[in-house]
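Researcher: Go.
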Amino acid sequence: FIESNKLETTSKYAFRGLRDLTHLSLANNNIKFLPRDVFIDLESLIELDLRGNAFECDCRAKWLMMWLKSTNATVSDVVCAGPEDMKGRRLNDMSSLDDECISTDFVLHQAVASESLSVDTFSFKNDVYVTIAAPSTDSCMVLQWDHIEMNFRTYDNIT
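Model: Structure:
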């Protein structure tokens, strides 16, 4: 029960390996969105409580909408707090966010020379960043999207 903790989001890997977890409550927090596949390892999940959060039902919620339709778990109502035209609607009842969300197939955009990588993205002050951990080199690169050159450029390198 991770309730009423003013939680705004969680790591994509927060519940990794918890295959025997049957009940999870994230109720009454400040969650606006959850990272894609955050519940992927929860194979035994019976009940999920997401009440009392302020979910943004935009493209970031599309995966959750699809997951709600496919899970066998009982999930509380996921009520949208925004955007304005979605306010008060239940994500559980929606059939599509396709009109608002555009997706494309993966295409190689930029290559990084490294053998073993762990990659994650994040936004900060309306900019997009990518972190690339390369355990074999004991470093973590942080790349920032360059809107002019249209590629990621080195922002920082943490050893």
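Model: The helical segments are 62-70.
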